[in-house]
Amino acid sequence: MLIGAPVQRVSSLSHSSSRHVPSYSLADYGWGEAWEHAFAPHRAAGLVPARVVRAERGSCEVVTDAGIVRAEIPGVADHADPLSAPCTGDWAALRPATAGHAPVLHAVLERRTALVRSTASRTSHGQVLAANVDTVVVTVSLAAPLKHGRTERMLALAWESGAQPVVVLTKADACADVSSAHAQVSEVAPGVDVLVTSAVTGQGLDVLSAVLTGTVVLFGPSGAGKSTLGNQLLGEDRLATGAVRDTDGKGRHTTAWRELLPLPGGGVLLDTPGLRAVGLHDAQDGLEQTFAEIEHLAGECRFADCAHGSEPGCAVLAAVEAGEISQRRLDSYHRLLRENAYAASRTDARLRADREAVKKDIARKLRATYQFRERQR
After folding, report:
1. 87 is in an annotated binding site
2. In this protein, which residues make up the domain named EngC GTPase (predicted)?
């Protein structure tokens, strides 16, 4: 195969390798006038627009108007911070293939939105899970015990991304009391649509399709039914699915990477691997929106710096005593605020260390220059 020629998709997609995969244009992947305007300087330089559909270390698959190609990512070692590395959903400027040379991802356009969590290695860096998304579908399985703390954590990241969150309760056919579950989740998701769905019966899928816009990312733990839900939205079995354990409702990682797929009714779907851990990374605004009712009541507290612990005249504690806010909800709010503050402090410490390292490097080079000049005299 010629270097830079369109590649045949081999991925989590597919039960049948002979399935015909239709060709799509950049417009099918979300390209529009705003992106064309942002891309103008790169087009003048002879580059072509592309969107990253799957990113790996050192290379990625991108879609262009000529099809999907594999491109090199130069300077991989320079991406010390995972936030700066190309990610699925990024719009990029591609240098086309030439004789003997593969296409090269020359630059990444500024992201409009980004779904970011702390890295799994628990460093002070963040990891971009999806870029330039419009809707974050937070999936919650009704076939397993509800974990509101995890839902709140995912909502905080979804709000922080700049996209619109939607909570989707999956596997309604396996739940004995859907109304109660819906009410519980709605309480921890203020300002967010909470939809009930079942891939088995088809319940709620038409409503879900109607509220999804633009680039849609499926976000949630293993076993929540993301890939099954994605297949329903795609209208065919393109995403690999797997069974979950009966004991705890947990599933295996059947989705091994993040990948973009056009939806038949317009828009783009991004399926993500199930997340074992969802750490916060610089998510203060997202937390404020996730706990909007607490933030609103905080403005009525006697003291401006009220910590909602034991202070007199605390409107939040009064709401807890009145049963308007649960103690669990307030405890979760405090816990996630502490976690986010700790993550921010680690990031600040790393940035200070990075700045000091640059200063020391400059000082070393200056000393070497002065020593060289002394020896030349």
Report:
1. no
2. 131-276
